[in-house]
Amino acid sequence: MKSENCILISSGNNWVEQAAKDQLEGVSRLPGVVRTVGLPDLHPGKSPVGIAVLSRGRFYPHLIGNDIGCGMSLFDTGVKLKKFRQDKWGSRLSYIRELRDIPAENPYEEECPILDLGTIGSGNHFAEFQCVDEVFDNELADRLGLPKDRVLLLIHSGSRGYGQEILKRYFRPEGLEEGSAEAHDYLAEHNRALLWAARNREVTASKLLDCVGVNAQPTKLLECSHNYLERTEEGWLHRKGSVSAKQGAVVIPGSRGSRTYLCLPSENTEIALGSLSHGAGRKWARSICKSRIDKKYDRDSIRTTEWKSRVVCHDTNLLFQEAPEAYKNVEQVIQSLKDWELIEVAAAFRPLITYKG
């Protein structure tokens, strides 16, 4: 799929459903849109997920969506892998029904007064303890400062109810005209939501480490926002389910039953509007997941993976909605990005404990 202003980056066995392609083409026809890129994890949503869109003269808040600043932060817990105890940590996490039940100091109260600070949210959001499973490029991994013998923590969350409220107030099918009062106000709130989302992941990391008995402060290794609007020299760059290739290394996770890849963008990613995939992308709608795999699992097996990792989640429906089968093959997504010469892969992490709630 390729036209003058609309391109899909995919190859080989990577599957992209027709509904997602149709949505991508629909976006390319919006007034002011100059270029539209679908990435290998492209899938349909209220607006397509896994896209980068460049417009001029106006921009579209609904292409960013309601979870402004949603992204992933990777932390070094400081815990040696040989000290990790899956049963102990899993049991402690199982006592948490919701992260909002755990009080946390909000050092950003004046700027970020939202009560949900320090929470993950539902849907595909998660926190996952991981470790290095394979290093593909030692020189590259060393250059990125990858701690190969310690427990890592990857958190995927966003701006929670904050971003939802912003979209409600500024959604216009025709977008917002550049230079208008509404555009100015949206951008100010959008930027606050971006800041809030990043701080939310930091507070969440501290909460979780405290819960499992780790006293050290987590060290942030990298930050990847994937729902946001960026002003560039060429115009307004919308990203929905895609990360910037201009800010260094990125993490691309699959599902709770697959590995996460640490990648370095190539020097030239202009064909993808300087963007990369944010993950594997959904394969199944949430409404059909349980009926398709209900007989495959019992109450215990749905809480473990082929990697012998443990899943902590108190919502049975969510367990099925987020099952590995509901997602595309992340290896095929990674291969597509490599085929298009957009990334170098430094390492892969395997899951130890996935927490949702």
How does this model look, in words?
By secondary structure, this protein is an alpha+beta fold. The protein is 27% helix and 29% strand. It has nine helices and 17 strands. Strands 5, 6, 7, 9, 13, 14, 16 and 17 form an eight-stranded mixed beta sheet that branches. The mean pLDDT is 94.
Topology:
Blueprint: E1 6-8, H1 18-28, E2 33-43, E3 49-55, E4 58-59, H2 61-64, E5 71-80, H3 86-94, E6 126-135, H4 138-143, E7 150-157, H5 160-170, E8 176-177, H6 181-211, E9 219-225, E10 227-231, E11 236-240, E12 242-244, E13 250-253, E14 260-265, E15 275-277, H7 286-293, E16 310-312, H8 316-321, H9 330-339, E17 343-355
Parallel strand pairs: 1-2, 16-17
Antiparallel strand pairs: 2-3, 3-11, 4-8, 5-7, 5-9, 6-7, 6-17, 10-11, 12-15, 13-14, 14-17
Q: What is the residue-averaged pLDDT? A: 94
Number of strands: 17
SSE class: alpha+beta
Strand content: 25-35%
Low-confidence stretches: none
> Fraction of residues in helices?
25-40%
Characterize the main sheet: 8 strands, mixed
| Count of runs of 4 or more consecutive helical residues | 9
**Backbone CA Rg:** 20 Å
Distance between the termini: 38 Å
